[in-house]
Amino acid sequence: MPMYRCMIPKGSLNYSQRSEIATAFTDVHCGISNAPRNFVHVQFFEIDEGTSVQDSHGAGDLKFDTPFFIAGGNRAGRPPEVRSQILDGLVNRFCEIASVPKSDVSGYISEAPASWSMEDGQILPEPGQEPAEWYAHDAVAD
Amino acid sequence: MIRFQCTVQEGYVPLELRGGLANSIEDCCLTVLGSSQGPVTVNWIEIPKGFGFRGGQPSSTSQVRGQIPDGCNPDTRALLLKKIGEEWCAITGAGQDELIVSARDESWAG
Questions:
Q1: Which residue of A has its CA nearest to B97?
Q2: What is the CATH number of the domain that holds A105?
Q3: I want to staple B100 with a disulfide (CB 3.0 to 4.6 A). Which of A38, B47, B63, B66 is the partner?
């Protein structure tokens, strides 16, 4: 975590744009949350119009009515305004890089307790309770 | 009903390993949560090269995300995540730093 899944029309973004968006999303998330950059995951799914897409846990379909959709998943525990700030930042950067109007992009960030996830062999800490060694994760190569 | 979805990066988890991985996830679930909590289903999504990133760089990280019956206590859930992680790394040869495992409550709406 965090995880940002971008649903995009087939062929709408080239590699350079996808890479730039992934970096921009990392900047947005880490700029607001102070999370290690290496923990930010961004994936792109090219979909045909009308195709359903399963949520990140395979438990139902994502619903959206814009050509582009950002489905985020973060640790719970941050104030709602922080979640909104992150989503606004993601949408703004996405629109800039993809050169699409904001009306074509929607998104939603779901949250779940940190203790429901394990990364790098460790159960995730709650937001604000990260130990100092948490930030060593930025040194992990991927 | 337990469902897991494995999202892997193209080129990192060969097809021939996936049956064994699915079996190990099922075994972990039934061992830790109890056989009455089954059945367990596992499906796969492969992210093509150039479509998955971590920290802004191309990613090799796999994600094993599932939903389990409500009411699991924290220690049991943590044990489940760790056992799945250990099995995954043993079978694939991946490091723990290339894996995310999560298990949310079945009724969780986020």
A1: A120
A2: 3.30.429.10
A3: B63
- Whether residue B78 and residue A115 make contact (CB cut-off 8 A), yes or no, is yes
Q: Tell whether domain B2-105 is in CATH 3.30.429.10.
A: yes
CB contact under 8 A, A111 and B110: yes
A97 interfaces chain B, CB cutoff of 8 Å: no
pLDDT level of residue B80 (50, 70, 90 thresholds) = very high
Q: Which residues form the domain of A57? A: 3-120
For chain A, the domain total comes to: 1
Question: Is there a contact between B63 and A40 if contact means CB atoms under 8 Å apart?
Answer: no
| A111 has a chain B CB within 8 A of its CB | yes
Q: Is residue A10 part of a domain?
A: yes
Distance from CA of A20 to the nearest CA of B (A): 8
Name residues of chain A where pLDDT drops below 50: 139-142
Task: Please check whether residue A47 lies inside any domain of the structure.
Answer: yes
pTM of the model: 0.91
Angle, CA A87 vertex, CA A81 and CA A93 arms, to 5°: 135
B46, B10 contact by CB (below 8 A): yes
